[in-house]
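job 3f2a | input accepted
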Amino acid sequence: MTAQLKRTSMIYGIGAVIYVCGVILTQQMTVTDWVKFFLFFAAYLFIGFDTFRKQSDKLMQKRGFTEYTFIILATVGAFGIGRYIEGVLVMLLFELGVIFETFASDSAKRSIAEMTNIRPAYATLKTADGEVQVDPGELMLSHIIVIKPGERIPVDALVLHGATTIDTKALTGEAAPQWARPGDRIYSGCINLSGVIEARVVKVYEDSTVSKIMNMVDEAQNRKAESETFVSRFSRVYTAAMLLLSAFIMVYPPLSFSYGNWNTWIYRGLIFMVVASPGAIVMSVPIAFLGGIACAAKHGILVKGGNYLEDLAKSDIFVFDKTGTLTQGVFEVKRVKAVGMLERDLLKIAAHVECYSNHPIAQSLFEAYTGAINKDKVYRVRETPGYGVSATYEGQRVHVGNWRLMEKEKVEIEEPDTSGSVVYVAIGNTYVGHIVISDEIREDAYDTLDYLKNRCNGVLVMLTGDSEDAGRETAEELDMDYAYSDLMPLEKVEQLEEFLFVQDSSEKLVFVGDGINDAPVLARADVGVAVGELASAAAVEAADVVLINGELTKLKDVIRIAKETVKAVNQNIMFAMGIKAMVLLMAGIGYFGMWEAILAEVGVMIASIMNAAWTAKYTV
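job 3f2a | predicted structure (620 res):
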């Protein structure tokens, strides 16, 4: 329980005690009307303290009509006609519902915080004078840190010495510990379990995974979903309309068919005002989205805001990147064809030119070559995304890349009749061969795409910069509806725009990529989902949803969570409106007193909040 909630509950408790004492006193003894008024008014001020404070904050924001407006006007009106006990009881029950809502909201936020509280407390820096504990924010690139068993990894780093197991559950939701050995990348926020390791800092704290994820979690709780903003807008109009209708009930009958019967109709108007309060709807909707975000976090999925859960529930067009998303992103050299030289020499040239690149294709060339790489022989390196790499190697300008790079450098090539990615090699303007590299489809891609197509009636689209043959082969294997190949990053955005143009407002487009080369498309889609490695800044910054452990099946999970969340929101709205309509009718014709009306209102509020909070417990 937060300090603010404790303080509010304490003040509320004092007011409740005064109220109970006042009821007992007035029932057992004869007191004057002024004593009765001051006794119950004191209880009223204590109990309604938080309501008055929140209404004051709304007025400062130039929002006069809120759910608190109804209760304040109704209870003040009850005091005006001498119904002190009922006036305080209405505020007592209403504030009880508000406290319950605040507790549920704090519980959901605390649940999110506990599941994502991965900030490291300190870092152990290795210096010439020994080891010293420092704030993680003080670490610089290439610093050497020591991480002992039980400690949280402070920043993203590369293991230099030692071996251990790492608990990555806080980031990925994966229960099984992961091995970390020299050369392995480890991520901030994870916990070292078994051995002492030394690691070199590869990202400073503000750029590390833990910092970016915690920033995203904080932002997620402040972003409103479309339903939430609609309810907020609706409540302002609804509140004004209901206040006018309440005033009509108070004034019109005494001036017409029930002439002079002011007390009866003012009382009925006040009851109507209590029942008409939109509190149950306004309070339960954000709780539902917080519950959805908490549930997603529990399953290793970070959602930046409730609005993205709502969009995911409406999604029907799913656009995928190919490499690293639908495929494993682990390339293998399948065939080498050299022209005018040995195949091993062609591999040697290509591996050296790509030696500064961290692209998966470059890694496959290193593994196929197996020889020593002398970077001193490589200079004037220029890597162009979507084309390839050009560099000067042993005094000659060498180009290694796709057909676009060859076309740009005016090199005539031989196009092989094969599937897979083709890397062409040219020395100067002379074509010297090509290397065919293939990538395997991920096992979890089949089940995930089948779910999207058959359970979500989704249209499946693939956008890739790979060759047409490789793209078509993958799309046919996964039974996709459309496949577009040989696309540059900006061409992917243009193709995405065409799908966005043909959809209507009830449809949403989801783009799923690895978050490294697809940042523009992730940002442009209605919902961008990153399935890339944890260290990818683009995965955290450009995407709206991050599947932290890279499992594509998590896409199914987050869509199910989104649908359950929206279902809870819709249930709350329909339930609250249905009960309100019934109680308003009964109150208008005099069958409900004020305390019965507020009891019904608080009951609806608590039921809606419990239904919404249950979303956090949902198991996919």
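job 3f2a | The chain has 21 helices and 22 strands.
job 3f2a | closed
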